[in-house]
Write a structure and sequence with these properties.
The chain is an all-alpha fold. It is rod-shaped. It is 82% helix and 0% strand.
Length: 276
Amino acid sequence: MNKWYASFAIGLMACMSLASCSKEFRQYSQWSRKGTTSEKDSAAFYFYERGDYEKASLLFEELQSIYKGEDRARTVLYHYAESKFNYGLYVVAAYYYEQYSRLYPNDELASECAFKVAYCYYVESAPHYLDQEYTLKAIDQFQLYVNSFPETEQAIEAEKLMAELRERLAQKSFEQARTYLRVGNFRAAVTAFDVMIRQFPDSRYREEAQFLQFESAAELAEVSTQAKKRNRYLDALEYYENFVDRYPNSAYIKQAEGIYVRTKKNYGKMLAGQNS
């Protein structure tokens, strides 16, 4: 009997709670449509705290214009950006976080908002084989954050995320150069590997890039006109020297040595032909 009574009481309380929540929800929904400014303000935070960011952002957007010039506009703008972020509209959120940082640079939330501008672009950044517009924006914003707030814990996180994004750009540059090599555009490959190595000297792709640059240069020398062969053979041999100096224990060393022997031999034949 007691067990039955306890179950009945719990069920009754659950029903009452649901009825109360439903009544409350209807009240705030009504305020969001036809309420006073104060009621719409309450409704915005009611929906925000319950994770209904779409409804909340609509109200925050309306309240922004109502509170323009007042101190309350600051809180509303922050939560508007947060609503967009939590709703997954990262580029839009970045715009409002940036606006907050610009309007309230000395506010205690300015640092957080500045970091989130960059983080929104980081989330939107595409894999290396797609357009890198947001990767570049994220790097710029993270660098701006580190310059503005160098002593914060998030500066360390910003540095880490920037390194990840730069590696993504390095991979894109590396893959582009390797494509030139694969299609036989050796001159473009040599140049593209050179650009990649100079722009991303610490990349994990550098070792392979230097090997492939040497291979590209050796192939370019082979297909060059007689007038250009000599200098291009010499360039290729110099790329080899640079590669073995930097990576004497590389996994590509045997391949590199094979190409070197062939290139050296062909260079010798070319010189012999010129002197005969």
